[in-house]
Amino acid sequence: MKKILLLGATGSIGQQTIDVIEQHPDLFELVGVSAGTSEAALHDIVARHPGIQVVGMAVAPETAFEGKKTFVGEDNMTECIQNCDYDLLVNATVGFRGLKPTLASLNKGVDVALANKESLVAGGALVRKTLEETKTRLYPIDSEHSAIFQCLQGNTTREVSRLIITASGGSFRDLDRSQLRDVSVEQALAHPNWNMGKRITIDSATMVNKGFEVIEAHYLFDLPFSQIDVVLHAESIVHSMVEFADHAVMAQLGSADMRLPIQYALAYPQRLDLQEEKPLDMTKTRDLHFRQMDEARFPMLRVAYEAGEKEGNAGAIFNGADEQAVEMFLRGKIGFLDIETSIQKALEHVEYIQDPDYEQLAQSDYKAREFVKNYWS
Ligand SMILES: NC(=O)C1=CN([C@@H]2O[C@H](COP(=O)(O)OP(=O)(O)OC[C@H]3O[C@@H](n4cnc5c(N)ncnc54)[C@H](OP(=O)(O)O)[C@@H]3O)[C@@H](O)[C@H]2O)C=CC1
Ligand SMILES: CC(=O)[C@@H](O)[C@H](O)COP(=O)(O)O
Ligand SMILES: [Mn+2]
User: Fold this and answer.
1) Assessment of whether the complete model's pTM goes beyond 0.90
2) What spacing in Å lies between the alpha carbon of 191 and ligand 3's midpoint?
Protein backbone atom coordinates (compact mmCIF):
# COMPACT_ATOMS: atom_id res chain seq x y z
CA MET A 1 0.00 0.00 0.00
CA LYS A 2 1.47 3.37 -1.05
CA LYS A 3 0.70 6.17 1.43
CA ILE A 4 -0.04 9.47 -0.32
CA LEU A 5 0.21 13.01 1.07
CA LEU A 6 -1.73 15.33 -1.26
CA LEU A 7 -1.23 19.11 -1.38
CA GLY A 8 -3.87 21.11 -3.25
CA ALA A 9 -6.42 18.36 -2.55
CA THR A 10 -9.46 20.52 -3.37
CA GLY A 11 -8.21 21.75 -6.76
CA SER A 12 -8.54 20.38 -10.28
CA ILE A 13 -5.48 18.07 -10.05
CA GLY A 14 -6.17 17.34 -6.37
CA GLN A 15 -9.72 16.08 -6.97
CA GLN A 16 -8.59 13.96 -9.94
CA THR A 17 -5.79 12.48 -7.79
CA ILE A 18 -8.39 11.50 -5.21
CA ASP A 19 -10.44 9.87 -7.96
CA VAL A 20 -7.39 7.79 -8.98
CA ILE A 21 -6.76 6.83 -5.33
CA GLU A 22 -10.44 5.86 -4.91
CA GLN A 23 -10.27 3.70 -8.07
CA HIS A 24 -7.42 1.68 -6.45
CA PRO A 25 -8.12 1.35 -2.72
CA ASP A 26 -5.95 -1.80 -2.61
CA LEU A 27 -2.87 0.13 -3.85
CA PHE A 28 -3.10 3.69 -2.52
CA GLU A 29 -4.07 5.22 0.82
CA LEU A 30 -4.60 8.95 1.32
CA VAL A 31 -2.83 9.86 4.59
CA GLY A 32 -2.68 13.67 4.43
CA VAL A 33 -4.36 16.58 2.65
CA SER A 34 -3.89 20.34 2.38
CA ALA A 35 -5.86 23.19 0.80
CA GLY A 36 -6.13 26.96 0.91
CA THR A 37 -9.62 27.97 2.02
CA SER A 38 -12.02 25.28 0.67
CA GLU A 39 -13.01 23.93 4.09
CA ALA A 40 -16.23 22.12 3.13
CA ALA A 41 -14.52 20.22 0.31
CA LEU A 42 -11.67 19.26 2.66
CA HIS A 43 -14.12 17.94 5.31
CA ASP A 44 -15.79 15.88 2.61
CA ILE A 45 -12.44 14.32 1.60
CA VAL A 46 -11.44 13.66 5.22
CA ALA A 47 -14.78 11.94 5.89
CA ARG A 48 -14.21 9.58 2.94
CA HIS A 49 -10.59 8.71 3.87
CA PRO A 50 -10.21 7.48 7.46
CA GLY A 51 -6.43 6.92 6.95
CA ILE A 52 -5.81 10.68 6.90
CA GLN A 53 -3.41 11.67 9.70
CA VAL A 54 -2.73 15.33 8.89
CA VAL A 55 -4.75 18.22 7.47
CA GLY A 56 -3.36 21.58 6.37
CA MET A 57 -5.20 24.81 5.56
CA ALA A 58 -4.00 28.32 4.74
CA VAL A 59 -6.76 29.76 6.98
CA ALA A 60 -8.13 28.46 10.29
CA PRO A 61 -11.08 26.05 9.76
CA GLU A 62 -14.43 27.00 11.30
CA THR A 63 -15.09 23.36 12.22
CA ALA A 64 -12.18 21.36 13.65
CA PHE A 65 -10.90 18.22 11.90
CA GLU A 66 -11.55 15.90 14.87
CA GLY A 67 -8.73 13.46 15.61
CA LYS A 68 -6.42 14.85 12.90
CA LYS A 69 -3.20 16.81 13.37
CA THR A 70 -4.15 20.15 11.82
CA PHE A 71 -1.73 22.81 10.56
CA VAL A 72 -2.86 26.32 9.68
CA GLY A 73 -1.17 29.21 7.88
CA GLU A 74 1.17 29.73 4.94
CA ASP A 75 3.54 26.98 6.21
CA ASN A 76 0.75 24.39 6.53
CA MET A 77 2.14 22.29 3.69
CA THR A 78 5.69 21.92 5.07
CA GLU A 79 4.23 21.21 8.53
CA CYS A 80 2.10 18.43 7.03
CA ILE A 81 5.25 17.01 5.39
CA GLN A 82 7.20 17.06 8.64
CA ASN A 83 4.38 15.47 10.66
CA CYS A 84 3.13 12.79 8.29
CA ASP A 85 4.30 9.25 7.58
CA TYR A 86 3.94 8.94 3.79
CA ASP A 87 5.62 7.30 0.77
CA LEU A 88 4.86 9.82 -1.99
CA LEU A 89 4.04 13.52 -2.00
CA VAL A 90 1.61 14.66 -4.69
CA ASN A 91 2.25 18.38 -5.03
CA ALA A 92 -0.88 19.80 -6.69
CA THR A 93 -0.92 23.20 -5.09
CA VAL A 94 -0.75 26.21 -7.40
CA GLY A 95 1.91 28.91 -7.47
CA PHE A 96 5.35 29.73 -6.08
CA ARG A 97 4.14 28.47 -2.69
CA GLY A 98 4.63 24.94 -4.06
CA LEU A 99 8.44 25.20 -4.18
CA LYS A 100 9.03 25.02 -0.43
CA PRO A 101 7.07 21.77 0.09
CA THR A 102 8.73 20.18 -2.96
CA LEU A 103 12.15 20.89 -1.40
CA ALA A 104 10.95 19.83 2.07
CA SER A 105 9.78 16.42 0.85
CA LEU A 106 12.95 15.77 -1.15
CA ASN A 107 15.05 16.81 1.87
CA LYS A 108 13.02 14.40 4.01
CA GLY A 109 14.04 11.70 1.48
CA VAL A 110 10.55 11.19 -0.01
CA ASP A 111 9.83 11.26 -3.77
CA VAL A 112 7.45 13.80 -5.29
CA ALA A 113 4.80 13.40 -8.00
CA LEU A 114 4.86 16.96 -9.32
CA ALA A 115 1.96 18.89 -10.82
CA ASN A 116 3.17 22.20 -9.34
CA LYS A 117 5.23 23.35 -12.33
CA GLU A 118 6.13 26.59 -10.52
CA SER A 119 8.56 24.53 -8.36
CA LEU A 120 10.73 23.99 -11.45
CA VAL A 121 10.07 27.30 -13.20
CA ALA A 122 11.06 29.35 -10.14
CA GLY A 123 13.49 26.96 -8.45
CA GLY A 124 14.61 24.41 -11.04
CA ALA A 125 18.35 24.57 -10.30
CA LEU A 126 17.77 24.27 -6.56
CA VAL A 127 15.35 21.36 -7.02
CA ARG A 128 17.82 19.56 -9.28
CA LYS A 129 20.66 20.07 -6.74
CA THR A 130 18.39 18.75 -3.96
CA LEU A 131 17.46 15.69 -6.05
CA GLU A 132 21.17 14.90 -6.57
CA GLU A 133 22.03 15.37 -2.88
CA THR A 134 19.10 13.34 -1.55
CA LYS A 135 18.95 10.67 -4.31
CA THR A 136 15.19 11.19 -4.50
CA ARG A 137 12.99 11.31 -7.63
CA LEU A 138 10.41 13.52 -9.27
CA TYR A 139 7.56 11.93 -11.24
CA PRO A 140 5.99 14.41 -13.69
CA ILE A 141 2.21 14.91 -13.64
CA ASP A 142 1.99 17.75 -16.18
CA SER A 143 0.52 15.99 -19.24
CA GLU A 144 3.31 16.94 -21.67
CA HIS A 145 6.08 15.88 -19.30
CA SER A 146 4.28 12.66 -18.43
CA ALA A 147 4.03 11.98 -22.18
CA ILE A 148 7.77 12.58 -22.61
CA PHE A 149 8.53 10.45 -19.53
CA GLN A 150 6.41 7.64 -20.97
CA CYS A 151 8.11 7.93 -24.40
CA LEU A 152 11.54 7.76 -22.75
CA GLN A 153 10.96 4.43 -21.02
CA GLY A 154 13.70 2.05 -22.13
CA ASN A 155 15.91 4.87 -23.45
CA THR A 156 18.16 7.56 -21.98
CA THR A 157 18.14 11.26 -22.79
CA ARG A 158 21.60 10.78 -24.35
CA GLU A 159 19.78 9.10 -27.27
CA VAL A 160 17.32 12.00 -27.67
CA SER A 161 17.72 14.61 -30.39
CA ARG A 162 14.64 16.73 -29.45
CA LEU A 163 11.68 16.96 -27.18
CA ILE A 164 8.57 18.21 -29.02
CA ILE A 165 6.05 19.74 -26.63
CA THR A 166 2.53 20.20 -28.00
CA ALA A 167 0.51 23.38 -27.32
CA SER A 168 -3.24 23.65 -27.82
CA GLY A 169 -3.01 27.41 -28.43
CA GLY A 170 -5.42 28.14 -25.57
CA SER A 171 -8.69 30.06 -25.55
CA PHE A 172 -7.62 32.66 -28.13
CA ARG A 173 -5.76 30.43 -30.55
CA ASP A 174 -7.73 31.71 -33.56
CA LEU A 175 -7.62 35.43 -32.71
CA ASP A 176 -4.91 37.76 -33.97
CA ARG A 177 -3.16 40.18 -31.60
CA SER A 178 -5.37 43.14 -32.49
CA GLN A 179 -8.38 41.12 -31.27
CA LEU A 180 -6.83 40.39 -27.86
CA ARG A 181 -7.04 43.87 -26.38
CA ASP A 182 -10.59 43.70 -25.03
CA VAL A 183 -11.12 39.99 -24.39
CA SER A 184 -13.02 39.18 -21.19
CA VAL A 185 -12.06 37.03 -18.22
CA GLU A 186 -14.91 34.68 -19.08
CA GLN A 187 -13.62 34.20 -22.65
CA ALA A 188 -10.07 33.64 -21.38
CA LEU A 189 -11.28 30.95 -18.96
CA ALA A 190 -12.94 28.94 -21.74
CA HIS A 191 -10.12 26.53 -22.65
CA PRO A 192 -10.96 24.59 -25.84
CA ASN A 193 -9.85 21.16 -24.54
CA TRP A 194 -9.00 21.04 -20.82
CA ASN A 195 -10.95 21.75 -17.66
CA MET A 196 -8.33 23.18 -15.26
CA GLY A 197 -7.79 25.72 -12.47
CA LYS A 198 -8.08 29.42 -13.33
CA ARG A 199 -4.39 30.34 -13.21
CA ILE A 200 -3.21 27.66 -15.63
CA THR A 201 -6.15 28.32 -17.97
CA ILE A 202 -5.15 31.98 -18.31
CA ASP A 203 -1.48 30.93 -18.66
CA SER A 204 -2.49 28.65 -21.49
CA ALA A 205 -4.16 31.56 -23.30
CA THR A 206 -1.06 33.80 -22.97
CA MET A 207 1.27 30.88 -23.88
CA VAL A 208 3.02 31.43 -20.53
CA ASN A 209 1.99 27.88 -19.64
CA LYS A 210 3.88 26.50 -22.64
CA GLY A 211 6.88 28.68 -21.74
CA PHE A 212 6.76 27.25 -18.22
CA GLU A 213 6.61 23.76 -19.69
CA VAL A 214 9.77 24.37 -21.74
CA ILE A 215 11.62 25.35 -18.53
CA GLU A 216 10.04 22.43 -16.66
CA ALA A 217 11.24 20.00 -19.39
CA HIS A 218 14.78 21.43 -19.24
CA TYR A 219 15.06 20.61 -15.54
CA LEU A 220 13.12 17.33 -15.56
CA PHE A 221 14.99 15.75 -18.47
CA ASP A 222 18.32 17.60 -18.22
CA LEU A 223 18.35 18.70 -21.87
CA PRO A 224 19.49 22.09 -23.23
CA PHE A 225 16.84 24.56 -24.42
CA SER A 226 18.12 24.13 -28.00
CA GLN A 227 16.75 20.55 -27.88
CA ILE A 228 13.28 21.54 -26.68
CA ASP A 229 10.71 22.61 -29.31
CA VAL A 230 7.03 23.54 -29.15
CA VAL A 231 4.44 22.82 -31.88
CA LEU A 232 0.84 23.97 -32.09
CA HIS A 233 -1.51 20.98 -31.92
CA ALA A 234 -5.09 22.18 -31.55
CA GLU A 235 -6.62 18.80 -30.63
CA SER A 236 -4.60 18.06 -27.42
CA ILE A 237 -4.56 14.37 -28.30
CA VAL A 238 -0.81 13.96 -28.86
CA HIS A 239 0.41 15.05 -25.43
CA SER A 240 4.05 15.45 -26.57
CA MET A 241 6.74 13.65 -28.54
CA VAL A 242 10.38 12.60 -28.34
CA GLU A 243 12.60 12.48 -31.41
CA PHE A 244 15.57 10.14 -31.03
CA ALA A 245 19.00 10.21 -32.69
CA ASP A 246 17.82 7.75 -35.37
CA HIS A 247 14.83 10.08 -36.16
CA ALA A 248 12.31 7.71 -34.63
CA VAL A 249 9.58 9.87 -33.10
CA MET A 250 7.70 8.45 -30.11
CA ALA A 251 4.42 10.07 -29.06
CA GLN A 252 1.93 9.47 -26.27
CA LEU A 253 -1.73 9.92 -27.20
CA GLY A 254 -4.78 10.00 -25.00
CA SER A 255 -7.98 11.85 -24.18
CA ALA A 256 -7.75 15.22 -22.42
CA ASP A 257 -8.00 13.60 -18.99
CA MET A 258 -5.34 14.33 -16.35
CA ARG A 259 -6.10 11.13 -14.45
CA LEU A 260 -3.88 9.13 -16.80
CA PRO A 261 -0.67 11.16 -16.10
CA ILE A 262 -1.61 11.38 -12.40
CA GLN A 263 -2.07 7.62 -12.18
CA TYR A 264 1.16 6.94 -14.09
CA ALA A 265 3.08 9.12 -11.61
CA LEU A 266 1.48 7.34 -8.63
CA ALA A 267 1.86 3.78 -9.93
CA TYR A 268 5.13 4.05 -11.91
CA PRO A 269 6.41 1.78 -13.38
CA GLN A 270 3.08 -0.07 -13.45
CA ARG A 271 0.17 0.68 -15.77
CA LEU A 272 -3.15 0.18 -14.01
CA ASP A 273 -6.74 0.07 -15.24
CA LEU A 274 -8.33 3.53 -15.41
CA GLN A 275 -12.04 4.29 -15.64
CA GLU A 276 -12.43 7.20 -18.10
CA GLU A 277 -15.71 8.69 -19.38
CA LYS A 278 -14.31 9.19 -22.89
CA PRO A 279 -11.18 7.09 -23.53
CA LEU A 280 -9.47 7.91 -26.80
CA ASP A 281 -10.94 6.04 -29.77
CA MET A 282 -8.75 6.66 -32.82
CA THR A 283 -11.54 5.62 -35.20
CA LYS A 284 -13.66 8.51 -33.92
CA THR A 285 -10.82 11.01 -33.64
CA ARG A 286 -10.80 14.07 -35.85
CA ASP A 287 -7.67 14.71 -37.95
CA LEU A 288 -4.55 15.61 -36.01
CA HIS A 289 -2.95 18.93 -36.97
CA PHE A 290 0.54 20.25 -36.20
CA ARG A 291 1.78 23.77 -36.95
CA GLN A 292 4.92 25.74 -36.22
CA MET A 293 4.52 28.25 -33.37
CA ASP A 294 4.13 31.89 -34.45
CA GLU A 295 6.48 33.73 -32.06
CA ALA A 296 5.14 37.16 -33.06
CA ARG A 297 1.62 36.02 -32.10
CA PHE A 298 2.80 34.35 -28.87
CA PRO A 299 5.77 36.45 -27.64
CA MET A 300 5.74 34.83 -24.17
CA LEU A 301 7.32 31.72 -25.62
CA ARG A 302 10.53 33.56 -26.59
CA VAL A 303 10.54 35.33 -23.20
CA ALA A 304 10.38 31.93 -21.49
CA TYR A 305 13.33 30.55 -23.48
CA GLU A 306 15.34 33.67 -22.60
CA ALA A 307 14.45 33.48 -18.88
CA GLY A 308 15.27 29.77 -18.90
CA GLU A 309 18.67 30.30 -20.57
CA LYS A 310 19.46 33.13 -18.15
CA GLU A 311 18.86 30.83 -15.13
CA GLY A 312 19.51 32.44 -11.69
CA ASN A 313 16.34 34.06 -10.36
CA ALA A 314 14.93 34.86 -13.84
CA GLY A 315 12.38 32.01 -13.59
CA ALA A 316 11.21 33.23 -10.18
CA ILE A 317 10.73 36.77 -11.55
CA PHE A 318 8.91 35.43 -14.63
CA ASN A 319 6.58 33.31 -12.51
CA GLY A 320 6.04 35.90 -9.73
CA ALA A 321 5.15 38.64 -12.23
CA ASP A 322 2.77 36.31 -14.04
CA GLU A 323 1.11 35.13 -10.83
CA GLN A 324 0.44 38.71 -9.78
CA ALA A 325 -0.70 39.82 -13.24
CA VAL A 326 -3.06 36.87 -13.70
CA GLU A 327 -4.61 37.56 -10.31
CA MET A 328 -5.15 41.23 -11.32
CA PHE A 329 -6.59 40.20 -14.70
CA LEU A 330 -9.02 37.82 -12.99
CA ARG A 331 -10.12 40.68 -10.68
CA GLY A 332 -10.66 42.96 -13.68
CA LYS A 333 -7.82 45.32 -12.70
CA ILE A 334 -5.77 44.93 -15.89
CA GLY A 335 -6.39 43.77 -19.46
CA PHE A 336 -5.32 40.50 -21.04
CA LEU A 337 -2.33 41.94 -22.92
CA ASP A 338 -1.17 43.71 -19.73
CA ILE A 339 -0.14 40.26 -18.43
CA GLU A 340 2.61 40.17 -21.08
CA THR A 341 3.71 43.73 -20.29
CA SER A 342 3.88 42.89 -16.56
CA ILE A 343 6.23 39.98 -17.21
CA GLN A 344 8.47 41.82 -19.66
CA LYS A 345 8.82 44.88 -17.40
CA ALA A 346 9.45 42.81 -14.25
CA LEU A 347 12.20 40.85 -16.01
CA GLU A 348 13.80 44.15 -17.04
CA HIS A 349 13.58 45.83 -13.61
CA VAL A 350 13.80 43.27 -10.80
CA GLU A 351 17.43 42.69 -9.75
CA TYR A 352 19.06 39.61 -11.32
CA ILE A 353 20.79 37.10 -8.98
CA GLN A 354 23.07 34.46 -10.52
CA ASP A 355 22.96 31.60 -7.99
CA PRO A 356 20.04 32.19 -5.59
CA ASP A 357 19.23 30.14 -2.50
CA TYR A 358 15.60 29.54 -1.44
CA GLU A 359 15.36 32.83 0.52
CA GLN A 360 16.62 34.83 -2.47
CA LEU A 361 14.10 33.09 -4.73
CA ALA A 362 11.30 33.95 -2.30
CA GLN A 363 12.54 37.58 -2.24
CA SER A 364 12.61 37.66 -6.05
CA ASP A 365 9.06 36.31 -6.16
CA TYR A 366 7.95 39.02 -3.70
CA LYS A 367 9.78 41.79 -5.60
CA ALA A 368 8.29 40.72 -8.94
CA ARG A 369 4.77 40.81 -7.46
CA GLU A 370 5.37 44.21 -5.85
CA PHE A 371 6.81 45.53 -9.10
CA VAL A 372 3.67 44.50 -11.02
CA LYS A 373 1.31 45.94 -8.37
CA ASN A 374 3.17 49.29 -8.44
CA TYR A 375 3.43 49.34 -12.23
CA TRP A 376 -0.37 49.35 -12.62
CA SER A 377 -1.22 51.55 -9.60
N1 LIG B 1 -5.41 21.49 -13.74
C2 LIG B 1 -4.68 20.84 -14.62
O3 LIG B 1 -5.22 20.10 -15.45
C4 LIG B 1 -3.20 20.97 -14.59
C5 LIG B 1 -2.54 21.65 -13.59
N6 LIG B 1 -1.17 21.68 -13.56
C7 LIG B 1 -0.50 22.38 -12.46
O8 LIG B 1 -0.95 21.81 -11.24
C9 LIG B 1 -1.01 22.80 -10.20
C10 LIG B 1 -2.44 22.85 -9.65
O11 LIG B 1 -3.30 23.29 -10.68
P12 LIG B 1 -4.88 23.23 -10.56
O13 LIG B 1 -5.26 21.97 -9.88
O14 LIG B 1 -5.40 23.55 -11.91
O15 LIG B 1 -5.16 24.45 -9.59
P16 LIG B 1 -6.47 24.79 -8.73
O17 LIG B 1 -6.55 26.25 -8.63
O18 LIG B 1 -7.64 24.04 -9.26
O19 LIG B 1 -6.14 24.17 -7.29
C20 LIG B 1 -5.14 24.73 -6.47
C21 LIG B 1 -5.08 24.02 -5.15
O22 LIG B 1 -4.12 24.70 -4.30
C23 LIG B 1 -4.75 25.04 -3.07
N24 LIG B 1 -4.19 26.25 -2.44
C25 LIG B 1 -4.39 27.54 -2.84
N26 LIG B 1 -3.78 28.37 -1.96
C27 LIG B 1 -3.20 27.59 -1.01
C28 LIG B 1 -2.44 27.86 0.16
N29 LIG B 1 -2.14 29.12 0.54
N30 LIG B 1 -2.02 26.82 0.93
C31 LIG B 1 -2.32 25.55 0.57
N32 LIG B 1 -3.03 25.23 -0.53
C33 LIG B 1 -3.46 26.25 -1.32
C34 LIG B 1 -6.20 25.25 -3.47
O35 LIG B 1 -7.03 25.22 -2.30
P36 LIG B 1 -8.46 25.99 -2.30
O37 LIG B 1 -9.40 25.12 -3.06
O38 LIG B 1 -8.82 26.05 -0.87
O39 LIG B 1 -8.24 27.33 -2.94
C40 LIG B 1 -6.41 24.06 -4.37
O41 LIG B 1 -6.56 22.88 -3.63
C42 LIG B 1 -0.55 24.11 -10.86
O43 LIG B 1 0.81 24.29 -10.65
C44 LIG B 1 -0.82 23.86 -12.34
O45 LIG B 1 0.01 24.62 -13.18
C46 LIG B 1 -0.42 21.06 -14.50
C47 LIG B 1 -1.01 20.41 -15.53
C48 LIG B 1 -2.44 20.32 -15.67
C1 LIG C 1 -3.36 19.49 -19.05
C2 LIG C 1 -2.07 20.16 -19.06
O3 LIG C 1 -1.02 19.56 -18.92
C4 LIG C 1 -2.05 21.62 -19.28
O5 LIG C 1 -0.79 22.18 -18.94
C6 LIG C 1 -2.34 21.77 -20.73
O7 LIG C 1 -1.16 21.41 -21.38
C8 LIG C 1 -2.77 23.11 -21.11
O9 LIG C 1 -2.82 23.11 -22.46
P10 LIG C 1 -2.11 24.19 -23.38
O11 LIG C 1 -1.19 25.01 -22.54
O12 LIG C 1 -1.41 23.39 -24.42
O13 LIG C 1 -3.27 24.97 -23.87
MN1 LIG D 1 0.63 20.83 -19.41
Assistant:
1) yes
2) 13
